[in-house]
């Protein structure tokens, strides 16, 4: 009996759900403008090259575009004459030619997706009002037409559209509609740099006419610095800088035809950002900071307009090259290292990394003695010591270091496959407390402090050699597993 009741209840639930579906569908159908029949109706069929003038009204703004001959820089670096669009009434403003050309092409060749309604009684049902977006197009031969956008379709697949002289409401694609929904920001190229971070082929920062650094993408390390030294970068820091560069937008056009760049600090800009992306090089010159509206004056090299950029997107301008690089001269991964021969302050030492097959853990030895004790944080002392060996960090960049004499410290890392690499640290010629880092005989351009080797590393080695490590570290169970870098 109980099962019978459950079956009745389940059947009733299904009936309610089915009825609910048809009721909701009926409501949607009765309240949604729908197509009478599907077709690809041609609304306009013209050559975009015949367009001589366009007037766009969108969001309360009205723009009229006309054409004129101008000398422009070609992709080959030559000055050529092209017929380009300009904004009537604001002839000196540089506008995005691709945006206006696309507008001409789309409006000249409009195809409707569907016929929505013929002679509708109320056009407001489809979003047509006095404030609707429209484009008036004038062609050669004294021809012209106007197309008007309504609201977006209920399924967001396009927009309602009408043409002058036709009382039928059609639908058009999102692409066609978005090409007509042009704002001033889109028209004036408020984006400064083309592309996205993955399109970048190089990025440089210059400050006070001195190149701070140049970075390029790299398959192994994500980013590599090529100036002032060649070294891998810190990917987190570098991504942040480049992403902030792409986040920069033109806040406002300040002066279309500046007569005196000195008042903006752009006659000799303090900063210059040079970015190569999508085969184009854009050089952004940044001048004085406007403290009243938290922005910087800027302009693009080769263009005449002065504009402002929000200060909060430029917080990396004073970043030195030292903050961009990976801070450690040499960081081989633990799992690939079999041993490290160490020579420091006339001491010769051997650190070995083996494996305890029975317990599946690392087996660390120092001069033949086990150092598998755990430290107070639960990490084996051997792993702590290895981390210490690869942790001297760069405190300066010296592109022109002079390497002489014998190294103060030298470590040879032999890998599990038998290959090896050497990192050596030589005293600088200008300061006995500074060391040049040399990898495999090649100067890295990085400088470290001798204090790390003389104090931190030496202290730990002394504790190992006199046995105080074993005394200080309380014995614990051998670790059963260990992660590696």
Task: Give an account of the 3D structure.
By secondary structure, the chain is of the alpha+beta class. It has three domains: 37-187, Immunoglobulin-like; 197-323, no CATH class; 334-472. Helices cover 20% and strands 39% of the residues. It has eight helices and 27 strands. The protein has helices at residues 2-31, 97-108, 174-180, 184-187, 235-247, 381-389, 450-465, 468-472; strands spanning 37-42, 51-58, 61-73, 79-87, 111-118, 134-139, 143-152, 158-163, 168-173, 200-207, 210-218, 222-227, 231-232, 252-255, 271-277, 280-290, 295-300, 306-310, 337-344, 347-356, 361-366, 369-370, 396-397, 409-415, 420-427, 434-439, 442-449. The strands form three sheets. It has a nine-stranded antiparallel sheet. Strands 13-12-11-10-15-16-17-18-14 form a nine-stranded antiparallel sheet, covered by helices on one side. The longest helix is centred in the N-terminal third of the chain and has 30 residues, at 2-31. The protein is elongated. Mean pLDDT is 84; it is low at 1-38 and 470-485.
End-to-end separation in angstroms reads 65 Å
The helix/strand class is alpha+beta
Q: Could you give the order of strands across the largest sheet?
A: 1-5-9-8-7-6-2-3-4
- What amount of the residues lies in strands? 35-45%
């Amino acid at each position: 009996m109980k099962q019978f009741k459950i079956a009745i209840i389940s059947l009733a639930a299904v009936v309610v759900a089915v009825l609910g579906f048809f009721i909701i569908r009926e409501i949607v159908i009765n309240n949604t403008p729908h197509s009478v029949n599907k077709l690809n109706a041609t609304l306009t069929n013209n050559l975009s090259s015949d367009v001589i003038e366009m007037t766009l009204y969108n969001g309360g703004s009205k723009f009229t575009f006309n054409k004129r001959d101008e000398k422009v820089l070609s992709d080959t670096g030559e000055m050529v004459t092209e017929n380009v669009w300009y904004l009537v009434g604001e002839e000196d403003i540089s506008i995005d030619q691709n945006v206006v050309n696309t507008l001409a092409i789309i409006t000249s060749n409009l195809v409707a997706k569907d016929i929505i309604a013929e002679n509708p009684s109320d056009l407001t049902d489809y979003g047509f009002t006095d404030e609707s977006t429209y484009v008036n197009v004038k062609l050669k031969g004294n021809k012209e037409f106007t197309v008007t956008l309504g609201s977006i379709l209920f399924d967001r697949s396009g927009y309602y559209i009408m043409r002058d002289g036709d009382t039928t409401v059609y639908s058009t694609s999102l692409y066609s509609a978005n090409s007509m929904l042009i704002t001033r920001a889109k028209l004036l190229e408020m984006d400064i740099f083309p592309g996205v971070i993955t399109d970048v082929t190089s990025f440089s920062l210059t400050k006070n006419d001195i190149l701070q650094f140049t970075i390029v993408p790299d398959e192994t390390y994500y980013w590599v610095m090529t100036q002032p030294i060649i070294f891998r970068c810190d990917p987190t820091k570098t991504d942040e800088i480049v992403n902030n560069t792409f986040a920069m937008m033109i806040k406002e056009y300040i002066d279309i035809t500046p007569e005196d760049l000195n008042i903006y600090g752009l006659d000799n800009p303090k900063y210059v950002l040079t970015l190569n992306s999508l085969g184009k090089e854009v050089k952004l010159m940044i001048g004085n900071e406007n403290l009243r509206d938290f922005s910087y004056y800027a302009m693009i090299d080769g263009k005449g307009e002065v504009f402002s950029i929000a200060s909060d997107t430029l917080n990396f301008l004073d970043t030195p090259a030292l903050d961009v690089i990976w801070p450690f001269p040499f960081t081989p991964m633990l799992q690939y290292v079999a041993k490290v021969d160490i020579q420091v302050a006339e001491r010769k030492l051997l650190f070995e990394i083996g494996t305890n097959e029975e317990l599946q853990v690392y087996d660390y030895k120092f001069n033949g003695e086990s150092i598998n004790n755990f430290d107070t944080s639960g990490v084996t002392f051997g792993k702590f010591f290895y981390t210490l060996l690869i942790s001297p960090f760069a405190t300066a960049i010296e592109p022109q270091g002079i390497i002489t004499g014998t190294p103060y410290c030298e470590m040879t890392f032999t890998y599990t496959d038998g290959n090896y690499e050497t990192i050596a640290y030589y005293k600088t010629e200008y300061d006995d407390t500074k060391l040049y880092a040399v990898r495999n005989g090649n100067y890295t351009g990085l400088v470290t402090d001798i204090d790390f080797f003389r104090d931190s590393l030496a202290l730990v080695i002394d504790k190992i050699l006199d046995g105080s490590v074993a005394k200080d570290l309380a014995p614990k169970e051998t670790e059963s597993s260990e992660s590696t870098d």
